[in-house]
């Protein structure tokens, strides 16, 4: 019973991170019809931006985090504006999807390659956790402060996204473009700018997820592989529906923790690199 | 113009074993395997317009099936290759039937997941694939001979490559090929014209899987070791890059892409760290500035 | 006179919307039958249900006495039903000739050369033979619509479904279309079901006209009968003058 409750609690924490990454993928998909295979690498790159800011520039944590999120937003917006826009204009029909997804694969390699050039990437690092202190014990469940911090930050990010899309003019405009670009253009919404903003928001969300997960795992230029699980979460959630995707993420986190804690089998390298950082 | 190009290619093919170093022959062999893989991927992507990632899994099935049959039963070539290709085709068809019920995005994601699962199986099925240790493959048996080195394998690989390019040309000009193009261009038009779009896509998937399986069967002809790590997304992206840079839907373009992108890493060998960066940049720039790849450039400069 | 196509109480729904509400229709063999009505009347949906691109929730569709509802859309060409599209639907990057060859898919091949010859003959008939090697998307709009029609005709259909073939065409091209439809019907005996907004074309070629509004049949008859039907005029309201023209 205690084990189950613990697995459930840990599952919600990892699930929250999956949900954030999955949200990032879904925002991109809804606004530009693209599967972003670089989602995990944007996350990875922004973690390294934070690391550089902390270590090389000696900035305080909050400033480094801000730099990471900002850098991710710039990468996203720039990629959409410079690459995807161009492809959208020059490629026709069904091949647009092939070309755009290929471009995200290209971005993924560029980001990984660029990070590998940094000297910090050759040693295994981790970002410091901001939520320190003794764990909180609720009955048989032990909650790390860090986990509570992750959950709170993810919840706040999710709520902020929801409020942004629901209540702000800009957010509603972005939603309108995602639903029906032609109609949105007719009522004067600048679709090109809205798409660019969607990419910026999506990548910023991925960066937040990265900052949350980086203290728990070892940072390597390959950590973006985590995106596979976010894809799974997004698919479970229906890929276009925000609440569904959040539920998909949480579900996946819980299932994985339950499986990991009930059957501790030999771990192959494949598993270690992709998914088993929570136990 | 065309005849000169053909003559140059033929001369190069003949010159490789005569003039080149051992490493050069090895490189030519890998290019031939990549070529068959890339043409197969292009049948699905460029001809039928279906975006799927399972190709690398079919390749893996071909490699392991061929390698294991040679190891355990010392079957003579080309039997192991044919069994591997059949197996790959069968699995491709099995995957295609449910996967093609899905819309494009989900098709891409599901086949991506399938490729990951297949790699996991290669990695974990110790009893058969020897798992993470990789598989040692004994030399190919050709009746009474054993193919030991790259030079032995080269002529065979060239023949297989030619057969596969020829088959692609036949497909291009057949009714089936036209049906694939029609499905790619406009599914409503295809349906209204009496083309069973679903069946056409499934067949495209199967043929594409067959190419991957044959490419897989070509590998053990000149390599003695396969590790599951080489059967992942990285390799698939490499092949995808060749197809996209070469030009979707054009056999000559794809082959040009195979040569260019296959030799690029050799040129970058001193710049190991930059490899990923350059690869990614080439991929992005290619889709941005050459929407129809090398084939498109050649077409434009010709007209 | 035998009936080529029969719709029995066909109902098509999109979510909560009843696009076609219990439509009965008889199209006699060897005639041109027009389906007209205001925008959103359900004409195209009715046509799409006959070509099996949408499936009715109720009712039956019979072609030459047999129900076609159990067949998918790709079976229609083989049965003898071909369709052209309202919006430009072509294989844009394929050549003009290849587009017609696509249309031959339902006909058993008589070899590559014979197929090509048959396709060229059709192109010759619509005056596109000189552009056979041009990618379809490079043709001007009107020519693309003609090509779509040629593709549909390639399967030698007995029933041809046309969704607004005159939309966007210039007057000269509409007159050519007019002559062509009549020729197809009278000379080749093709039955034609025509959805069309251009009334001059409908009035001049249609043997019989069915008027739809809100998914229901509100009138049926010859051109002369339709023109004077008060219900039709009411449905068209401001467009009454157009009908009378």
Characterization of the model:
The complex is a heterotrimer of chains A (279), B (303) and C (245). Chain A has 279 residues and is mostly helical. Helices cover 72% and strands 2% of the residues of chain A. In chain A, helix 3 (61-90) packs across helix 8. Residues 265-279 of chain A have low confidence and may be disordered. With 303 residues, chain B is mainly α. Chain B has helices at 2-19, 22-47, 55-73, 79-99, 104-124, 126-129, 150-172, 175-185, 187-192, 197-218, 233-246, 251-267, 275-289, 293-302, and strands at 135-136, 140-142, 145-147, 225-226. In chain B, a hairpin with a 2-residue loop joins strand 2 (140-142) and strand 3 (145-147). Chain B starts with a helix and ends with a helix. The mean pLDDT of chain B is 88. The model of chain C has no long low-confidence stretch (mean pLDDT 89). By secondary structure, chain C is an alpha/beta fold. Chain C contains ten helices and ten strands. Chains in contact: A-B, B-C. At the A-B interface, helix 3, helix 4 and helix 9 of A face helix 5, helix 11 and helix 13 of B.
Low-confidence stretches of chain C: none
Question: Helicity of chain C, in percent?
Answer: 25-40%
The biggest beta sheet of chain B, please? 2 strands, antiparallel
Largest sheet features of chain C: 6 strands, mixed
Q: Strand order, main sheet of chain B: write it out.
A: 1-4
- Output the number of helix runs of chain B: 14
Derived structural class of chain C:
alpha/beta
Radius of gyration of chain B, CA atoms, in whole angstroms: 19 Å
Output the structural class of chain B. Answer: mainly alpha
Mean pLDDT of chain C: 89
The string of secondary-structure elements of chain C, in order, is EEEHEEHEHHHEHEHEEHHH
Number of strands of chain C: 10
Using a beta-carbon cutoff below 8 angstroms, give the protein chain pair with the largest interface and the number of residues from each chain.
A-B, 38 and 39 residues
User: How many beta strands in the DSSP annotation of chain B?
Assistant: 4
Question: What oligomeric state is this?
Answer: heterotrimer
> How big is the Rg of chain C?
18 Å
- Please state the overall shape of chain C, judged from the principal axes of the Cα atoms: globular
**Could you state the order of secondary-structure elements of chain B as H and E?**
HHHHHHEEEHHHHEHHHH
